[in-house]
Amino acid sequence: MKYIIIGNSAAGIGAVEGIRQTDKHGEITVITGEAHHTYSRPLISYLLSGKTTEEKMKYRNNDFYSDNNVSLLSGVTVTSIQADRKQVSLSDGGSLQYDKLLVAAGSSPFIPPFEGLEKVKEKFTFMSLDDARKLDEALCKDNKTTDKEQNSIDETRKTGGKHALIIGAGLIGLKCAEGIIKKVSKITVTDLAPRILSSILDEDGADIVQKHLEDQGINFKLACSVKNFTETSAVFEDGGIVDFDMLVLAVGVRANTSLLKNIAEIDRGIIVNGRSETSAKDIYAAGDCTQTRDISSGQNKIMALLPNAYMQGECAGINMAAAGAENNKSFDKAIPMNAAGFFGLHIITAGNYVGETYIEQGAANSGKRKTEKERINFYKKLFYSDKKLNGYILIGNVEKAGIYTSLIRECTPLDSIDFDLICKKPGLMAFTREERMVKLGGAKGQGV
Length: 448
Fold this sequence. Notes:
24% of the residues lie in helices and 26% in strands. Helix 1 runs parallel beside helix 8 (306-320). With 448 residues, the protein is α/β, with parallel strands linked by helices. The protein is built from 12 helices and 26 strands. The longest helix has 15 residues, at 306-320.
């Protein structure tokens, strides 16, 4: 059996491990345009801030490909797929045959057609290791002195005097701001939305996080769009002008779906079923390029999250190698979920924000918080209806997020647990004895 996997991130790695659970000897070829060992993309901001290294960013050990008998084609892209011939064409002029194909092509930065953007020389995106390297190189340039012997790169990083303008106040833009803050003199983050992290936080939650970021020295210009750029300034629709030395574009991402155009069903992402199959025979898809069913809302949507990508990729790999129906694997409990931390303040959100709400802000666990600033940086909002938990927002204390996530994924009837206790003090004691045994691995529940 010949397997081809397009993509070398979480979904692709999950597929390799899924295949090898069943097929120990089939030929696996992983194709990636990046010239790197597989790495964890969420860590690129920590690389810039010095909290990790490229070696520690590796998603699997150095022997992963050899241990799994994988041929890695790096620095090469797939230019087209000939589904009728079960063949892919490569950017180096070559081609490969497959029996089963996985498209785990991820997503790419969305660059709006800003007027004058082509004039900006120092502009960057922030999604890959190469992006982080280019940005770090620019930050290390000594633009303030010609006496390099007296001013090392490290000193330049500390006193560089550069103003960074980041377009986009979502997760990517804010993680970039955190990563570079010690290497610039000023950061301004702007967004068309009236609040930061507008896709995952409500107004109160966003206000808490924004104030925390402002305390670290990050400036915001919200509810306003860029009209046009000059080489070193952004002119806004309200007439304001922000000068900058470097520009980071973090407006959003778009799923990489073009390889399956006119081959498989595509909406905003590649449409897959619970087995990670596309509508094209023997072609699977997984990860950020796909659209899957959100069990918290019942809608099909893109849910770009590393754990989801891995589990979906593993599901695809198991089914690609399946010898019979008894080996089928389903990935049918996906929910939108985000986990991030900014300067020590942690955030986890999940699910769908509809229904009645339970809210705590600042008061819970206040005995553990020594200062007023620490105390107010706590926020919990639960959304529920029809006897089920739909979603949640946690800021500050996120230790018990797994309890809430489990309730959403398993569609647990809220009248079968002590929901009042779960709201205030999430823990296993809110479940029945039988359910506690199942969650602790001591018994099997019905249908498990």
